[in-house]
């Protein structure tokens, strides 16, 4: 992360609050990119020669790298050729797959899911019959209009809150739900909370990459706006090797994994955070940050036979696996 000018992007944590270190940083160390009061930190471009001096500052508790974060690709199998293939299907343990979790419930109505990703396209399953994109913030290109130049964020939004509108509209969707309550979400490609609203925060670029500082800035936005939009859930389908925050190169993360610290802070505000485990399996302990936080719900993959694929990251203990791998890739583009 060093550049030709001899600077390094870092995240500096105050022992008390950002006000305590702001002026000192501006006068002595570098330019502030973001202020993150929810974790008492500043994202700063610092001259490398001053790094050792910063560490000795009595008001600074920790420093970590502003490392690159990437999306976690969604492995999928299309069901569009036979949307009724799930009906009655059972796995090796003789349990029905994809049993509906929203039959008879509110389906997320009134709740907003924040998604930090590559953005969101106005897919009909999200904006019809009512537009449920209640907020959009672009930390990459500062656009005011929702867009997704990669597709990953739109896909994730569909998994979370797609309502199956493109299957034939509300009448058809409700008819299928009545006829096949345990399989409706598979047949019509419906998300887990098909009536929930979406707050899309674009912090990854057109290749699905971004900086930790942009992810944290998006988290700060959630902290500032969760009451306004009733954000109860945050999804992070992204990750990074936890050792990437090592600023000394000694193999340790200096006890300052910024993504975990950010996730923990939001959980303490009452927000449920769902994080992808990663695609670095099958070795134990291969979960990426921020899925390593003990306070978040870290979710891996399971295929149509109820088996965990080798690529899905594992924790040191058994974690809950989702059927993320089996969702169709219908959310990649808008109609």
Automatic annotation (TrEMBL):
Which Gene3D superfamilies does the protein's record reference?
Answer: Peptidase S8 propeptide/proteinase inhibitor I9, Peptidase S8/S53 domain
What InterPro entries is this protein classified in?
Peptidase_S8/S53_dom (IPR000209), Peptidase_S8/S53_dom_sf (IPR036852), Peptidase_S8_Asp-AS (IPR023827), Peptidase_S8_His-AS (IPR022398), Peptidase_S8_subtilisin-like (IPR050131), Peptidase_S8_subtilisin-rel (IPR015500), S8pro/Inhibitor_I9_sf (IPR037045)
What Gene Ontology terms describe what this protein does at the molecular function level?
serine-type endopeptidase activity
Q: What top-level branch of life does the organism fall under?
A: Bacteria
From the UniProt record, give one GO term of the biological process aspect.
Answer: proteolysis
Transmembrane annotation, as ranges = none
Keywords of the record: Hydrolase, Protease, Serine protease
> Which PROSITE patterns does the record associate with it?
SUBTILASE, SUBTILASE_ASP, SUBTILASE_HIS
Under the heading Pfam families, the entry gives: Peptidase_S8 (PF00082)
Residue ranges occupied by any Peptidase S8/S53 domain in the UniProt entry? 108-316
- Which family, according to UniProt? Belongs to the peptidase S8 family.
Please report the name of this protein according to its UniProt entry: S8 family serine peptidase
